[in-house]
Amino acid sequence: MSVDLKAAFDEVKDEISSSVKGRLGSPFVGVFIFAWIIWNHRFLFALFSEKKLEMRFGYIDEVLYPDVWSFLGLNFAGPLASAAVYIFAVPWITEFVIGWNLKMKRRVLAKEMESDGRNPLPELDSQQMRHDINDRNKRINEQREGIAKLGHKLSRSDAVVAVLSNSSRAGPQLKNFLCAGVMRLDLKPPMGGSRYEFEKEGHVKVIWEGSPVMKGAAKWRLDGMNLVVMNLDGAEIVTLEFDPSVAEFVERTGAGRRLDIS
């Protein structure tokens, strides 16, 4: 056999094998085979019994398949009908049974609540209540954000007034302003801002870092009106001075870095 002919036979064999696997992998084929076994279980028992071959074939021909209609009914019509019922009807029946079971559970739960003196809400009322609760939570969050913004403005104003009145005693107000919210570090020219949270204990929490200007920031301290940002070892990274004219911490080196509440 030539190499080309052998390759052609191998290709045909692979295609047939792939086609058979695809057919056997179909859910309908598996259900049909199972239904055929149920409908023809007597044929299988007779075929593999220990009786003589003539008696087995005689039983199959005379009892199981005495005519063509019996043969077609047991081998095709019956299994096909059973497979169709299993594939199409059983899921609907299962869905109905599950729905009915859940309905009965809800009724039992409602009876238990009534016996305990609790009145279950109708579905429409419970949906409206959930909607009202979500709206209330949304309004509460909006009010909290508004209060936080007002707190930021108040701490900024306090810091400005304290610095203009007596800069040497403005430390507490500057600290409150610095710790009032997430601080935004802006650069000039824009290079990507960063977000930091200055904790009252003197730690710096990095929220998001878009530039390496304060990379490694871990600690902070106030030195008069100056904010000194340090790394974990205490080495200074950058120093910014509070400018009451713009109510921001500004770097005086000309780099144009500004630190303000975002």
TrEMBL record:
Tell me the keywords, alphabetical order: Membrane, Transmembrane, Transmembrane helix
- Chain segments annotated as transmembrane: 28-48, 68-98
What is the protein name given in its UniProt record?
Answer: Transmembrane protein
Q: Which organism is it from?
A: Stenotrophomonas maltophilia
> What lineage is on file?
Bacteria, Pseudomonadati, Pseudomonadota, Gammaproteobacteria, Lysobacterales
